[in-house]
Design a protein that fits this description.
Blueprint lengths: L3 H32 L4 H10 L3 H12 L4 H11 L2 H12 L6 H9 L3 H8 L7 H28 L2 H25 L1 H19 L8 H19 L6 H4 L1
Helix pairs in contact: 1-2, 1-3, 1-8, 1-9, 2-8, 3-4, 4-11, 5-7, 9-10, 10-11
């Protein structure tokens, strides 16, 4: 049986590529944070407590739009809801006698990538493996955001505007692969674009903030898709 130290080292090794990827993405998020009025330290703290690209971008976008605290809280919950399911799945990977403190620490940084390498560990998951991965991945995310804010403040406005496009490229990279595999997902993406465009120009919603519009559309479209096109047992495993 591997010791905690060995598992931690394995996690660090597997977490280094994740840290490099996080740094690049977080750098563009830092530019978005700077445009929303966050300082480098504030943005880094936000990244260290909300390590989620979509959820964190929602925070910066809503803050930039002048949204209230409750709008930011609800949208962050909606954007990060998938991590609740990942946490439930990961909890089954841990040994039944794993102390609550370890379960809570593992749950602190359940991201797509950390979840992926943790769930792929053969047999039961030793929490120290996840700790090792998080110990390098999370700083990569925080430092990337910090430097992104500094770069956004120091670089010329045109270059900052050009670098900001990288964030949209990140989201395109997220939605294109699943959309190519599933016509349903592709259709939902197009519907989301169209609905967002209409909501932004519909006079009846003129008095509704952009944050509330985003929350309503996200919940409505997701709920409609879940009710009309439920995923059958085993379908995800075959995809």
């Amino acid at each position: 049986m591997e010791t905690n130290r060995t598992c931690f080292r394995s996690g660090v090794r597997d977490g280094i590529p994740i840290a490099l990827g996080y740094f690049a993405v977080a750098f563009t998020l830092g530019i978005a944070a700077r445009n929303a009025g966050f300082s480098a330290v504030q943005a880094m703290i936000e990244s260290l407590t909300n390590n989620a690209s979509a959820g964190e971008y929602a925070v910066f976008a809503l803050a930039s739009a002048g949204a209230g605290y409750w709008e930011v809280a609800v949208m962050t919950l909606v954007a990060n809801a998938r991590y609740l399911l990942m946490s439930c799945a990961l909890s089954q990977k841990l040994a039944p006698d794993t102390p609550l403190r370890h379960r809570m620490l593992v749950a602190y940084d359940v991201t797509d990538e950390i979840f992926g390498i943790s769930i792929a560990v053969p047999g039961r998951l030793n929490p120290w493996y996840t700790y090792g991965a998080v110990s390098v991945a999370l700083p990569g995310w925080g430092i990337g955001t910090f430097l992104g804010v500094i770069a956004g403040s120091a670089l010329p406005a045109r270059l900052v505007s050009a670098l900001s496009v990288g964030l949209y490229g990140m989201f395109i990279a997220i939605i294109v692969p699943p959309a190519r595999k599933s016509r349903l997902i592709a259709a939902l993406v197009l519907i989301s674009f169209a609905a967002s465009f209409i909501a932004g120009r519909w006079s009846l919603l003129a008095g509704v903030s952009s944050g509330v519009k985003t929350i309503i559309l996200t919940v409505a479209i997701s709920l409609a898709a879940a009710l009309l096109f439920p995923v059958k047992d085993g379908e995800e495993a075959q995809a």
